[in-house]
Amino acid sequence: MTDTRRRVKVYTLNEDRQWDDRGTGHVSSGYVERLKGTSLLVRAESDGSLLLESKINPTTAYQKQQDTLIVWSEAENYDLALSFQEKAGCDEIWEKICQVQGKDPSVDITQDVVDESEDERFEDMSSPGLELPPCELNRLDDLAELVASSLPSPLRREKLALAVENEGYIRKLLELFHVCEDLENSEGLHHLYEIIKGIFLLNRTALFEVMFSEECIMDVIGCLEFDPALPQPRRHREFLTKTARFKEVIPISDPELRQKIHQTYRVQYIQDMVLPTPSVFEENMLSTLHSFIFFNKVEIVGMLQDDEKFLTDLFAQLTDEATDDDKRHELVNFLKEFCAFSQTLQPQNRDAFFKTLSNMGILPALEVILGMDDVQVRGAATDIFSYLVEYNPSMVREFVMQESQQNDDDILLINLIIEHMICDTDPELGGAVQLMGLLRTLVDPENMLATANKTEKTEFLSFFYKHCMHVLSAPLLANTTEEKPSKDDFQTSQLLALILELLTFCVEHHTYHIKNYIINKDILRRVLVLTASQHAFLALCALRFMRRIIGLKDEFYNRYIMRNFLFEPVIKAFLNNGSRYNLMNSAIIEMFEYVRVDVKSLTAHIVENYWKALEDVDYVQTFKGLKLRYEQQRERQDNPKLDSMRSILRNHRFRRDARTLEDEEEMWFNTDEDDMEDGEAVVPPSDKMKTEEDLMEPISKFMERKKLKDPDDKEVLGKSSLSGRQNPSFKLAFSGSTKTSLSSPPSSASLNPGSPGSPGSPGSGARSSPSTATVTTKGGLVGLVDYPDDDDDEEDEDEEDGETKEDPLPPSKKSKLSS
């Protein structure tokens, strides 16, 4: 039999860093004279040919992985792996390798792997570093090769950066660039492109400060125009000097600030447009460039924020009616970019920034701008407004509540936002979607503050529903006056879907405010008109709105739905959809399924009013389940005695006084549940029950008399209905004077039914059975009276007549058990 322990697959790593399967065979180890050492041998299992012969070198790093894999490098670019079928074979070969190398087999790698960067750390760090070739035209190729070879190694990159920085090499290179450009030396320009690109990847701030200085930055951009991969050089400098213009909308008096703005724009241009997209390995090499731009933006925001005259002039011109449209357009774009720069600030600095803007009157200024006709200006103002809402929605809410005391509803800031959302001319409603998100943030109670003196949620929602909600719902009400939507084009449907999405959010989060609005304005009926829309997404939005309302299980909503018969359009949409299995079908069925399980009042309403339309739907059980649930409810309503009897049985009707109640409950909870399931019925104690001796005497006499009777007598009692199953026997057990129990013993020790001394067997106790059964003490006998079994009435009456003649206990002494 073949030894599977040594069965292996041989793999080699190809140039694409993928493992190639070289064959399957069996591995062994032994001394090979030709190799002068112990070697690993793998022979193919197909023909016995040699797949692998590898000497175990004392210095080679072998690695064991996943218990069945051994990996090592045979040469610089030749990696090998043995994959074993069984762990035992892998362990044997691993022990042999470790034995040759003098290592403990418990290790997973036989040598300490030292990568190139580690090797370099052992070099003498006091060495002078890299020596750069002279900065001459004929040596540019050597310099380009040196830069390229240094980039993969962190230590060599560091040494190269130090050498370039210390020798002022960048300025020398830029002088050569002018020479090459004048001579139209394309080869030299290509080398300079590679060199400057490599210097960017050195990721060193000191070099960036030189390259981005006022006198050097345009020459650096010039070097990066001559990409050897492109047939023609790019014209970046021409764009920056002629096409891109710096506009001072408000004159900047600080020359340092102006220079910083120019520098940041150009560096951002280099990052975004000039440098090629970095590979995965190069991304981290440009982290310092990102940081340089980031900190420049922070400085610009800080310097502008500190210039009070500048900001005062800015807002004064924004709100001045005399300002012409072009100027205002430039001012708004500047403010938008200013706010965008602020996103780079730390949280505490951003707080100070927006407080400054608020104090300068940014919200009244935005209100003026949003009232203009220029679409571009309004778009920029919307972006600025979004920065403010995302930063501090409470600040915006406070402003609009204050202005409502002075202005009409039409010119309130929030109503302007709603109107722009409604009037968005974009076919895809891109701006409307953005504005709807801002409104949702403003009406979200989760970000509203509650203080000791006031509750923002109450105040703002009262304001919103009084002054703004009628503006938001106007398109919905205008389009749903008939049984079908008045306008059903795609853009109108998209807008109504957005409005419905916001109203659905309000239903979930605003409780009584939205409830009053929906019921008073009959909003749900108008919304359900949209289920007749030709656009499925709008009909589904209407269904989702109703489903959220039903999901609240609020009887105010339920009565409103029933009073206005609002399931009618839903059922009409369901029937019009036919047998198509689509999202509409599933959404409506899910709604009815939820009603069936959780909402009794709506269940009755649906069955009583719409059953004829739904009774033929049988591919799901939802509607038949609705009818069944309805009939069960009606049965309980028509037969209140059933519910009251169950209630009596649950609550122990036969009680003497409050003290008895407490004793019975304590006894009930102390009774072992398993015993109850086995058939034991507990007789509750009575304050007037006799002692055990008083009860035992007449019972003993009765049992003796029964033994003398005809053994063919029928059962005294009918089958028990307490548990829904018969128990073959019972025994009497008394545990103290306060407890009498009936229990079902094992069948081997039981008395047969109908035999002398076996008057019947009680069930195990029933809280759910519809019949009423009690255990009574008659003539000293503890037995069951089983009402439902009519067939046994005569037998029971005969038996009871015999018992009452001998009854030694007055009625006041009878003990009764309610299950």
UniProtKB/TrEMBL annotation:
Biological classification of the source: Eukaryota, Metazoa, Chordata, Craniata, Vertebrata
Ranges annotated as biased composition (Polar residues): 720-729
Any matching Pfam family: PP4R3
PP4R3 EVH1-like domain span: 5-101
Chain intervals for the UniProt region annotation (Disordered): 672-819
Serine/threonine-protein phosphatase 4 regulatory subunit 3-like central domain sequence ranges: 143-632
Biased composition (Acidic residues): 787-804
Function: Regulatory subunit of serine/threonine-protein phosphatase 4.
Native species: Labrus bergylta
A Gene Ontology term for the protein's cellular component: protein phosphatase 4 complex
Bias type Basic and acidic residues, positions: 702-717
Composition-biased stretches (Low complexity): 735-755
InterPro entries per record: ARM-type_fold (IPR016024), EVH1_PP4R3 (IPR055236), P4R3-like_central_dom (IPR006887), PH-like_dom_sf (IPR011993), PP4R3-like (IPR051137)
Protein name listed in UniProt: Serine/threonine-protein phosphatase 4 regulatory subunit 3
